[in-house]
Specification:
alpha/beta; Rossmann fold; 2 domains; 4 helices
Length: 164
């Protein structure tokens, strides 16, 4: 859930409830004013992404925004997301990760040990589409490219996937 920056973008006509999974107390504190200002029903899940305490097939959509880079056990977390998605459910994502350009990837690999320590465990060399597909999802829409700013942290993947 992070600092809840996504809340204004949810379609209130189609969203009944938002489960906010965020184990970091600091992020939850940043999110509180945005949640209070929102008319959405937001309920916290304070466990890590590897332990989603929801029933199987209980969610229509899982939204990932700059999450997979920091989850230590990304494979288990994505398996949990797949488990809670209803048949026909969607995984929506925007993540930064491994650049397709060798020169940028070289720098990503060089700085990642320090980057990870100062950026909350963020690993900028993860091949996001591969991770999603390796855990039983089929990507049905994918875009990628650099955002403004440093290329080493600015290659993004965004799209949607469904359980295979």
């Amino acid at each position: 859930m992070g600092p809840a920056l996504n809340l204004p973008f949810y379609d209130r006509d189609n969203v009944e409830l938002v489960w906010g999974l965020e184990p970091n107390d600091g992020m939850r504190k940043l999110a509180e004013p945005r949640i209070e200002a929102s008319d959405l029903d937001v309920r916290w899940l304070d466990l890590p992404g590897e332990e989603i305490p929801l029933d199987d097939d209980s969610a229509d959509t899982v939204v990932l925004t700059f999450t997979l880079c920091t989850i230590p056990d990304w494979e288990r977390a994505l398996a949990q997301m797949r488990r809670v998605l209803r048949p026909g459910g969607r995984l929506l994502f925007i993540e930064h990760g491994e650049s397709p350009d060798e020169s940028v990837r070289t720098w990503q690999r060089r700085i990642e040990p320090v980057w990870s320590r100062v950026a909350g465990g963020c690993r900028i060399t993860r091949p996001i589409p591969d991770l999603i597909e390796q855990t039983g999802f089929s990507i049905d829409q994918l875009d990628a490219g650099y955002s403004p700013g440093p290329k080493i942290s600015g290659y993004h993947y965004w799209g949607s996937a469904r359980p295979s």
